[in-house]
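Exercise (ungraded).
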Amino acid sequence: MKFLWLAWKDLLLIARDKKAFLTLILMPLLLIAILGSALGNMMKEDEDISIKKFTLGVVNLDQGQLSKVLTEEVFSKSLSKQIQVKYYQEDELNKKIKDHKLTVGIIIQDDFTASLMSGEETKVKLLSVPDTVINATIVQNVIEQFSRSIPIEAVVSQMAQPVQTGNQGGIMQEGYGKKPLLNETTIDAKTKPVSSFQYYAAAMGVMFLLMTVVQGVSTMILEKEQDVFNRLLLTNLTYPNYLLGKMLGLMIICLLQVFIIIVGTSLIFGVDWGSSVSGIVIMTFAFVVNASGLGVLAGSFIKTEKSFNVAGMFGTQIMAALGGSMVPLYVFPNWVVFITKFLPNGLALQTYLDLMSGATVSKILPAIAGSIGLGLFFFAIGLIRLSWERRGKYA
Amino acid sequence: MNMLTVQDLRKIFGKFEAVKGVSFAVEKGESYGLLGPNGAGKSTTINMITGLFPPTSGEIHIKDIDVVKNQKQAQKWIGVVPQEIALYQSMSARENLKFWGRMYDLSGSALEKSVDQVLEIIGLSERAKDKVETFSGGMKRRVNIGAAILHKPELLIMDEPTVGIDPQSRNHILETVKRLNNEGMTIIYTSHYMEEVEYLCERIGIVDHGELIASGTLSELRETIGDHSKIILAMDKERFNPEQITESLTTFFSDKDFQIQDQQVMVFHKEPQLILTDFIQSVTKTGAKITSVDIVEPNLESVFLHLTGRNLRD
Ligand SMILES: Nc1ncnc2c1ncn2[C@@H]1O[C@H](COP(=O)(O)OP(=O)(O)OP(=O)(O)O)[C@@H](O)[C@H]1O
Ligand SMILES: [Mg+2]
């Protein structure tokens, strides 16, 4: 029970520290403002830039009606200003895209019509050259809109949906190193697409939390050098109890910030964070366990607060970059995306995105378990390392 | 029963030996003083006794509990007043006391009662709701002490609890400690103010350079220097001639019994009343003018001077 009072004390101290409290509340709001102006400008620019007409390569393995509607009615006719459709065999399409002769291609599976009609899931393979993400995004959005409006509107011939142009294109403008020759995305026809605004809100939110955790762990190290910490050690408080209290305090702060970010972005910009409130709360909790576990691990190896701050700053940047906060995860090959799941923020971002595209708590359970498990693992190593160090001191 | 026994305690920091084999014991109900100059090793010794860090070698027992092996168990019985103020500045006195009480497993009405009592003892009931950061140095020190006695420890260990505060707060603290001791609490008190230790402690250990160079009751320690009192004459600057005074004094006293320092002339003697007139006459004979006369009973200061050849405070 003592850890509860320790956490309470930490929150009380922050609430009374005007500077810290303002940072806690103002920073997320500032972040939201930056997010808004950056993306707002980007979208305006996108409106001005007319997207060049491009050729879409289509492999249609489906014999049914719906694939015909999609390719002929939607892509060829309704979007004739933007898109020219050409039909290929599968091998041919692959080769064209590999050679950069074509920028975007789709492969419609043979169960396309049947599955959509019966309300089952189906997949359309989207192939693209990484540089032309705008094109790929248009195609992706069109297919997603299309499959969502089925089967209700299946009979109606007006299939064309307003195209959300270029949203995700903006993210891609930053340079990145080696690009895969071929970018393969599988579109799950039953999930909601995530807009760039949503992506950025989640990505920056996660980066922000990571910074808060680093900050929290660094004050923990700082506190170790203070007299109150020595006094704590002289009371009945045990070391694990102390760490528990610290983590609880940090968690509450993080949840508060997530709350501000989510409420702020959804009220001001209408960002949709998905319908699962409990999913977000649990995931945030899991993320904080994971991130602070990593923080405690790092803290156990780093002695002074100064060097931790430096390491924390670089670490945060690197992790943010790898975890998809700077460059969208879509540009990485799948195996890299898989590896980034071992980073607290990578996993959290992907899970937030899942929640945004409609996942329920039960669907993100593996991610939650993984996040908490990884956190406890880091935490345990950190504790072992700390007690080893203490025993060393006792020798 | 001994409340505390310390045997051959040593602490080496890197190559520096801060504590060099200290042994002593404190009985239940006793008040024991550790007196020594800055850097003598008092805090290092205290910190090992409270289990904050382990000794390089040696043994510490509190109520027969081995502190090195079972520090958490031993810590239950002790209250520690650290040398530095270890409080949360943006919390009020009451909030601080409540927090520290909880860390000692107090709760509910027992906690409330204890906090009220302690506030009474440290004389801050009136200011209980004010933040510690708004307090004077002396008031902070008092809260620092209060946080150590909430759980009614049997042994109270205080590390220079009166450093750098006004005389009024200091007196209040000394009286509080005396009262706690009279009520049965065992006290260990470190200081480099000999007056405090003289006032509070039944037995005293003198530490210097990591060693316990003497220990005993005040009168036992006085005896080590032969119980000499000191007469101090303060002189006017005008017509003050040290050579002439030295010459005049040698007719009465041997060289090592008197001392001339700055504008003071001092004489050491077992019975100062007997030589007072002779002393004053030999000094005024030279034409010098005396501004004041002081007779100082033998104290720990002179004991320390005698043992180390240095003053306790430099
Ligand atoms: N952690 C440490 N590492 C190295 N040396 C230390 C350490 N702690 C104390 N010392 C040294 O040990 C000696 C004794 O220090 P200590 O703090 O015990 O003295 P003290 O008697 O409490 O002095 P003061 O009256 O100034 O508080 C000093 O020379 C100090 O520099
Ligand atoms: Mg000290």
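Further reading is listed at the end of the chapter. For now, observe: Residues 228-297 of chain B form a domain with the Alpha-Beta Plaits fold (CATH 3.30.70.100). Chain B has a mean pLDDT of 89.
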